[in-house]
Design goal:
This protein is of the alpha/beta class and 305 residues long. It has helices at 12-23, 44-50, 65-75, 95-104, 126-135, 148-151, 167-172, 184-194, 215-231, 234-239, 246-259, 266-284; strands spanning 2-8, 31-37, 54-57, 80-84, 89-91, 111-119, 141-143, 162-166, 198-208. The chain has two domains: 2-208, Spore Coat Polysaccharide Biosynthesis Protein SpsA, Chain A (Alpha-Beta Complex), CATH 3.90.550; 215-304, no CATH class. It is built from twelve helices and nine strands. α1 links the parallel β1 and β2. α5 packs across α11 (246-259), α9 (215-231) runs parallel beside α12 (266-284) and α11 runs antiparallel to α12. The longest helix has 19 residues, at 266-284. The chain is globular, with a radius of gyration of 19 Å.
Length: 305
Amino acid sequence: MITIIIPTFNGGELFGEVLQSIAMQEIHEEYELLIYDSSSTDNTVQRAKSFGAEVVRIDKKDFDHGGTRALAAKKAAGDILVFMTQDAVIAGSESLASLVQPLKSTNSSSVAVSYGRQLPRKDATPAAAHLRLFNYPTESYVRTNDDKHTYGLKTVFVSNSFAAYNKSILAASGYFDNGIIFGEDTCAVGRLLLEGYAIQYVAEATVYHSHNYSLVEEFKRHFDIGVLHSTENWLLQEYGRAEGHGASYVRSAFSYFLKNNAWYLIPDLIIRCGVKFIGYKLGRNYSSLPAGLRPKLSMHVTWWR
């Protein structure tokens, strides 16, 4: 059995598209849809129930990226847990089946986690579209702990916007960390790789999911990444520093913009890279900043409370 888990808060019309895309999936297994809702004030709960979902209501202040997902995982009846976000619309009727296949195959019993490919939404800016293409290639692959010598921190790259976990393996590893700013998926995968399991990227399992971040949002996003790498420093100790991937991203972005006749966006790219770098560095050193300033620099304001 498969359990699809989605944390929600005021999902709006886009959440309706997500639910519809789930209903259109062609899979042989029975599945349950489990929603953990942080006291939405719109019709998110009603939408979910209309698609047969079980909804668990929690107080907005009690939401935690890792802790809430861990609660849902423990409650789930499925042997395979599929985590999604309320804004990731599944593309194609066989994407869910493709995503969970590595966890069912007898030839890949060491695979504990699989995650899908994220495609840019139709309204994605060139910068947002390139980021998805950069992070989610067209070819599938498998990563183990040995790959960290080649890929560094990219070895633990994963996204709970569309990822599947072997429940028994995840449970034995302690589910997800409670109390971290975000990145519960990265930390879980990091531990599982150290325990000898593998993670598989499934390019055929696709969702539409992208964000058109402003410069301020780019700063805050990378500030939070810096905070994560500071509070969970073992990730860097085991898998290497994050800064090493910046150069390859910049080269890829330059090539993408020139190829798509968007050379006029190169100044914006340079500014964004600078904003990301400053945000990340400040996040790494957040403990030196005034306590009242930290939440103002972050996307996850409630975490600081």
